[in-house]
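Internal QA ticket QA-208
Title: Verify multi-chain structure generation after dependency bump
Assignee: T.L.

Test input:
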Amino acid sequence: EKTQFTIDDFFEIM
Amino acid sequence: LEAKFDDSTIFKKIIDSFKDSVTQINFVCSESGIEAQAIDDSRVLLVTVSIPPSCFESYRCDRPTTIGVYLASLAKLLKSANTNSSLTLYVADKPDELLLLFEEPKNQKSMEYKLKLVDITADMLEVDSDMKSDVTVEMSSVEFTKTVRDLTQLSDSFTVSVTKDGIVFSVQGDTAQGKVLLQPREDLADESNNLSISMSKTIDLSFASKYLLDIIKAASISNKIFLKFSDDTPALFEFKMEKGGGVGFYLAPKYDD
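Actual output:
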């Protein structure tokens, strides 16, 4: 099974 | 803001390319053009939009302005767009509405719409547009669209792997599996059919099929798509416009537990 990551796991909030 | 597209369908294509992925967006207007960023409700897909002054017949923005809109409403107004009409966007100094003026001088016709602006509180994410990637692929957006449509029918997960032999898109469903291999090619007669790969290492990444189906809706923006992949960042699917700027989609991958 694979887990869906989100954009927030990679990019910081400015 | 006063920004005129000589062809109103340019703006329609841009909006239509992501209106089904996100519900609302803040357009940030400045001297250097219109930029926007929006993320879908599941926070898996990030859309970035860039419309530089070169995309307009005339462009003026006296002071930085943020225009928040509901995309479904804006898309309704843009149904009036056609290749014979120009479109000018106007926003006053104290923005509470966006005025869209379509003009068809040949038909002595003009259409005026007003759209109420909305106050959208959305986080801006720090996205490095020059993000380093292990693999860059440039290919026909028509070919990409067909491959995504064909394969995503079979499974809700979609795998992309790139090696020196080419790019492989594959799916493994419960009852069927499919694989499309595309190798680098140069079509001298039609450059849009070219496929080029530049890579520093091989990649093998999985994505949810439904987001790829959203991304291909932007294929009308350009006959080419740029793909950027790395092991540890979201993939970038980018459609660049002829006159500069474009629409990009950052898609977070699925990883093994």
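Spot checks passed. The interface with chain A takes residues 39, 42-46, 123-127, 157, 206, 208, 232-234, 250, 252-257 of chain B (CB under 8 Å).
Status: verified.
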